[in-house]
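For practice. Supply one:
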Amino acid sequence: MEESSPKASRGRRRLWYVLAGGLGVLVVGFLVIYFVVFPTSSPKPFTLGETTRLAGTPSVASGTSASGATAAPLTGDWTIASGSQAGYRVREKLAFLPAESDAVGRTSQIKGSASFTTHGAATQITSASFTVNVYSLKSDRSMRDEKIREIGLESARYPTSTFSSSGDAAVPAGLAKGEIVKVTVAGVLQLHGVSKHVTIPVEMRSTGATLQAVGSITFPWGEFGMSAPSLGGFVNVTEHATMEFELRLARSS
């Protein structure tokens, strides 16, 4: 069998370079059309305003529960109920576009519980533990969802994130009356296989049989051993990520 000549080998290499370059142009062209012609529409951050109250219930006035009566005592155990969500929010800039926008992914696959105790007039959160299935996070772009399973969150490798409180957290008296109150909860956040002690500011409200809690925490990607999931200069992601949540808890039977 005759060996290929150097000239023929160089020709094949040039052909491969041309094909690879052409494929790269097609991929970039597809991404431009995908992101520019079909712009994203990011959901707003979670709040305890009109948009987050439980379906079928009226807004809650200060000092009353959804039923109009003083909210029930908080003492006891509460578990995750339907309507809970958690996810990420990052700032990204697409090539050829002048401004940054938010990329947001969310999931309702959350498990966990919290316990409250009351001594006299003082109420405390004595324990809280939650697990989020980050592999199930979905944004408005399936391409983005596939990428964060491989880069950034690497959720194919680290499919869950957990938070466990450490120590008691004092609850303002207004929560038992249906008011929106602010609580600071300390604990350990495990994300991307890395565990860190964090402090999360949380807003809470009682609607009688249900507790609502929203909060978020922002951190550098590197704090949890991650790199910003930028894509070759076409999609540039800022160096900070936000994990946010809206939890709805029902009293355990």
